[in-house]
Amino acid sequence: MPHDRIRAAIAVKHAILADTALLSRLEQATAACVTTFRAGGKALFCGNGGSAADAQHLAAELSGRFYLDRPPLFAEAMHVNTSFLTAVANDYGYDHAFSRLTTGMARPGDVLFLLSTSGNSRNILAAAVAGKKAGCTLVAMTGASGGELGHLVDILINIPSSDTPRIQEGHMLLGHILCEDVEQRLFGTP
After folding, report:
1. Of 7, 31, 39, 71, which sees the most CB atoms within 10 A?
2. 48 belongs to an annotated ligand binding site
């Protein structure tokens, strides 16, 4: 029944609202982005499947606009170059698709967002290792457990759920809050 799924989504949002540690980590991720953008750095995003769509959506909110008509910020979803992605997957294996691009694009001080509902996607884990070597601040957006990824990153935004659709809805909620707060801090309130 749709009512049950709506109630489940609301329950996850209530759990997010009650998790002060999670909201504090969201604030840390926001502050990291503000610092990065003020220093001329960039935010890179990677994810698979629905998380790739979420990564692209959040990158677009930063690089385009959220509420304010303002200068663009350097934010990019790393899967949008399909020629690169398919060539690397073919030549090196899909586990290296994001790590290879991270090595090429990331610079010290950049923020690397790693979206994985399980926290165990091999290519996302490899990107985290490459991002750490590059000197990035690593922000994972996962489900409740954080998976292996939770142990590799600087900031863990783990949605209190083990249900993939509810996790992804939580990622978008907190991702939108982050984008709005980054925009307000850099450019003023709408």
Report:
1. 31
2. yes
